[in-house]
Design brief:
Blueprint lengths: L1 H26 L4 H12 L2 H14 L7 H12 L3 H10 L16 H8 L3 H16 L1 H6 L4 H4 L4 H13 L7 H10 L4 H7 L3 E2 L2 E2 L26 H8 L12
Antiparallel strand pairs: 1-2
Helix pairs in contact: 1-2, 2-3, 2-4, 3-4, 6-7
Length: 249
């Protein structure tokens, strides 16, 4: 009986190792969909899975982060594991998106909220950061005039956009909204229902009408001052920051 148990354990260990090797290969795939499917399997693999996520993030550390790395980071961030917490603090103390800013703006809290998938709070903070970037008057009034959008720094808008992209499986961000806007020929009446801001000719009510999770339509978030009308949105989507910004695959 003991020999049978040993053989059984060995067979199980061999199968597990083979399965993990297969998941490693899938993580190197050119298909984000395949990578995300592999990540979901890895996340279910307890401590072994956490070790594989750490290995993956270290291998990808020099690359421009995508939402695949963002999903791996979020899994480690949410894990109840001292080892995972120590790993993130050591190697990614401010997250996996470089928090670059021309105006010395601190985006660490926005990164934290998005990593935790606190999307409603992250959306409110995004507006605060846009107002902060626009200057003291905008910060005091708590919204941005469309005439102020053009002066918002490219670096900061790209940082905010990258945070949303990376922590939403590529579903949310200004660049995603711009992509959809261009795909409908810059027709606002076609854009609003596509991103869930309008339905049956009725505007979505804030905040209860919006969907604050990844089940929302692509481009649903951030709201980017949506309640202030189309001119702010038009100026934001026409900003030169998106000419070189990453887009979701």
């Amino acid at each position: 009986m003991s020999g049978f148990t040993t053989d059984s354990n060995l067979s199980s260990a061999t199968h597990t190792a083979s399965h993990l090797d297969d998941l490693r290969l899938k993580l190197k795939s050119d298909s984000p969909k395949t990578q995300l499917q592999a990540l979901q399997d890895i996340i279910q693999a307890d401590e072994v899975g956490l070790a594989l996520l750490m290995e993956f993030l270290l291998e990808r550390r020099a690359a421009v982060p995508s939402f695949v790395e963002g999903t791996a980071y979020q899994a480690l961030y949410a894990a109840n594991s001292p080892k995972a917490a120590e790993f993130l603090q050591t190697h990614f103390p401010t997250g996996i998106v470089p928090l670059r800013s021309e105006g010395n703006i601190d985006y660490s809290e926005l990164q934290k909220l998005l990593a935790q998938q606190e999307l409603e709070a992250a959306d409110r903070l995004t507006l605060e950061k846009l107002c902060e970037l626009a200057g003291p008057a905008a910060a005091q009034r708590k919204w941005v005039y469309f005439t102020e959008v053009g002066s918002l720094p490219i670096t900061d808008l790209q940082t905010i956009n990258s945070l949303w992209l990376v922590h939403s499986e590529g579903k949310f961000g200004f660049s995603v909204q711009r992509e959809i806007w261009l795909s409908v020929g810059k027709d606002w009446d076609k854009l609003w229902p596509k991103i869930g801001w309008k339905a049956a000719n009725n505007w979505t009510r804030y905040p209860q009408g919006f969907t604050w999770n990844l089940s929302a339509p692509r481009g649903h978030l951030p709201l980017s001052n949506q309640l202030r009308g189309v001119r702010v949105m038009a100026a934001l989507l026409a900003h030169p920051a998106w000419l070189s910004a990453p887009t979701a695959k």
